[in-house]
Design a protein that fits this description.
Number of strands: 15
Strand content: 15-25%
């Protein structure tokens, strides 16, 4: 059975070999800090452009190879959910009466490959578009990092009459709410950051998780977010703040056995986005870091379809989930590593040992 790193490398080679030279030149990028410039919304909304090549410029066979490349970084479950998320751009375009057709398109997802794919050396790749950002760093045949890993959904759910509801981020939503719903009043006092949820994740889509993050500082890329941040009170900003060295919320020492199990299951929702053996490696890291160091925090009401937010934060693991925009029917859910997104913690140690 091939490792994920080998599958990624072979998928990258197959994809590049299928492309004409002009597209290879655009997809192949140097292994520089540009790979840190990730996002989860259409870049044009912030006056920016994508790096790499989008699905919309490829033929059918090339698109299949690009999706196979994206699949190499996800579990089967997560890949299917991501595919649904991409298709939701058609639904959103219809809901918006096609006023943003230039940026609402399931084929507007870009692949960029950084460095030389292979079993020797360091390289990486990014697959990105609306509500999707996959970022992987590989060195000498080993996946060093798969974060930031962002999946979102707008709308958060669709259904028709008696037919089943489609909720591509339903696991993230349900697992967090179930844990919060089982907290008693004293426990909620520890977990609750504020009665109002932030408009988006508190930690912005910056290259590395900062020591401290406060809503609106630095200013958000999108004016609509920044306008909401500026309307917040200082107390709300203080309550919702993120401090990397001091995880906030309720820890396992204040949870009973059933609640602790639910916290494990919530974390597992995010870890299971990865292929099985990468997910297993992440679980080992979490066990080594100690579950007692994780904190679960909540903001907003606890009922479905109410605007809400949660955070799970420990020394090397952090997720933020937000469902506030579009009247609580628009989900953002991101997994990050406070010590080293993009494998930077390991790469720094490696570089230091060689000099």
């Amino acid at each position: 059975m091939r490792s994920s790193a080998s599958e990624m490398g072979q998928a990258a080679v197959d994809l590049l070999d299928s492309l004409p030279s002009e597209l290879v030149t655009r997809m192949r990028q140097p292994f520089t800090d540009e790979r840190h410039q990730w996002t989860f919304y259409p870049r044009e909304m912030a006056g920016k452009t994508y790096v790499g090549v989008p699905l919309l410029e490829l033929d059918r066979d090339q698109r299949l190879l690009m999706m196979k490349m994206a699949r190499s970084g996800l579990s089967a479950h997560a890949f299917r959910r991501m595919s649904v998320i991409m298709s939701f751009d058609n639904v959103l375009n219809d809901m918006e009466d096609y006023i943003r057709s230039d940026i609402r398109d399931p084929l507007r997802y870009w692949m960029a490959i950084y460095g030389e794919p292979g079993d020797i050396g360091t390289w990486g790749w990014r697959f990105e578009g609306h509500h999707v950002s996959l970022n992987n760093t590989i060195r000498d045949g080993e996946v060093l990092s798969s974060t930031p890993l962002f999946l979102g959904a707008n709308p958060s759910e669709i259904g028709s009459g008696a037919h089943a509801m489609i909720r591509p981020c339903g696991d993230e939503e349900d697992a967090g709410r179930e844990l919060y719903s089982l907290l008693d009043d004293d426990q909620r006092a520890l977990a609750l950051l504020d009665i109002t949820a932030p408009i988006d994740t508190v930690v912005p889509n910056v290259p590395m998780v900062p020591a401290v993050a406060i809503p609106g500082e630095p200013p958000a890329d999108l004016a609509m977010f920044q306008n909401v941040h500026e309307a917040m009170t200082d107390e709300q900003k203080h309550n919702l703040r993120f401090e990397s060295a001091s995880p906030r919320g309720i820890g396992t020492s204040h949870l009973d056995g059933a609640q602790t199990k639910l916290l494990h299951e919530l974390v597992d929702v995010y870890v299971r986005r990865l292929p099985e053996h990468l997910a297993t490696k992440e679980q080992v890291k979490l066990d080594a870091a100690g579950w007692d160091n994780l904190r679960f925090a909540w903001a907003g009401p606890g009922q479905r379809h109410e605007k809400h937010y949660y955070r799970v934060h420990g020394p090397s693991f952090m997720v933020e989930y937000n469902c506030v925009q579009d009247d609580g029917k628009h989900i953002h859910a991101v997994w990050r590593n406070p010590q080293g997104d993009f494998g930077e913690d390991i790469l720094r140690t490696h570089m230091a040992s060689e000099h």
